[in-house]
Amino acid sequence: MALRRSVLGLVAATAALLAPGTAPAQTLKAVMHSDVKIVDPIWTTAYIVRNHGYMIYDTLFALDADGQVKPQMVDAYTVSPDSLTYTFTLRDGLKWHDGKPVTAEDCVASIKRWSARDSLGQKLMTFVDGMKADDAKTFTVTLKSPTGLLLFGLAKPSSNVPFMMPKRVAETDPNQQISDFTGSGPFMMKTDEWKPGDKIVYTKFKDYKPRAEPASGLAGGKVAKLDRVEWLAVSDQQQAVNALLAGEIDLIEQPAYDLIPLLKGDSNIKLVDYNPLGLQYAMRPNHLIKPFDNPKVRQALTYALNQTDFLQAAVGEPDYYKTCKALFVCGSPMATDKGMDGLLESNFAKSKQLLKEAGYDGTPIVLLHSTDLQTLTNLGPVAKQLLEKGGFKVDMQSSDWQTVVSRRVRKDPVDKGGWNLMNTSWVSADILNPVMSSFMNMSCDKAPFGWPCDAEMEKLRDDFAREVDPVKQKAIAEAVQLRWREVVPYVPLGQYYIPIAARKNVSGILTAPAPVFWNVEKK
Q1: Do residues 429 and 516 touch, judged by C-beta distance below 8 A?
Q2: What is the pLDDT of residues 235-251, one digit of tens each?
Q3: Considering the entire predicted model, what is its pTM?
């Protein structure tokens, strides 16, 4: 009822302010999968922050609906005959939200900050000899040796996305969060209306100049057809669904699976399968501290767990999930079952044997458990049950997702706020090959949270980055999966799909790895 009163009150207040004959501003109200408390999409891989990034920032390149790399902020580029020098020219009319022009220096600084945090970006920079702004609109990237990673990296579709920021912002230490939220994207963040735990608000950037071609995936013309977008923080899924059915909100990014039949039963609601490759559930161990600093203990995870139990508990409806042991997701070119025989089948005896060989002393492991992100909520209890059957002792510590996101970057011992295990998920577009997949980054301190370290895996990822023949790439991906079995940087827990639920008067939702709000309109 509180949500209904607030929405009706806003409508009445807006109507009172309109001059006679003035059309009301087109406002869309959405309930996203999480509240927005962190707003730096380079500092964290959290998808709600990635989604926020797509609202207010733009990218140099982007992937279209067919997965092809297309220029976005870039107007044109040239490549030298030896494939070592790339020269990029920005489009005319690019502006920051403060009215200043986007410059090549801004882009160079943004690429540097992104590449310091992102796994693909880090690998890309091992090939880069230098980057420099040639003039206000042109910059050059010089490579040490040829690689296909440069354009693909600049078009990376999901966390971390190489969003462009003003130079003054991009020069923020990559390990510190930004405090200036000036972008150049189709929407602007209303910082004066941002209330964590309540809502975050975006308004149309009227000086944004879209590309001329139609929107396709994350590429093409980003035409903002909405004047205002509000993301409301509603953690109770039943409340959110009731509001959608009543027309008090317009869209739910990730409706609870058990409530989808209710939505299907209303003729005013539609379900949009915007991400056909889906997502992959994952368990991440912390390699820095005991017991998961021991590879045999990590290997025990691959025997104690099974995907079906997680998928049934978290999703339930078979139409929306499938078991898939492939690290690089079923349905993608690099998918393989190489090396997966006997794994993820809850062989508890084998798990206990490995723990005994590793000298595991029964010290409880701290498992971080998210309670408010409905797609993850049921993973923790299943993990605890299976791990305990496999010989582990588990201390499951529950909190909201944003607390998990903040805690998982800590390297402290568990008695000082650290952690041993956590569950998450990756959109498939993030994990299509060994270089893209953040959890396959085993570069020690430069790796994402969990901080795995393995020189052999890093060599294989280097080999993949240098190779351009798809057949040879597939062979390297198979070798990566065989090495994964030995070092276990993470454990895949199955593939799943979740549609957007929207009122039928909402149109233009694009097929893309992330939910975006350009091209969307409300009639």
Answers
A1: no
A2: 899 999 999 999 999 99
A3: 0.84
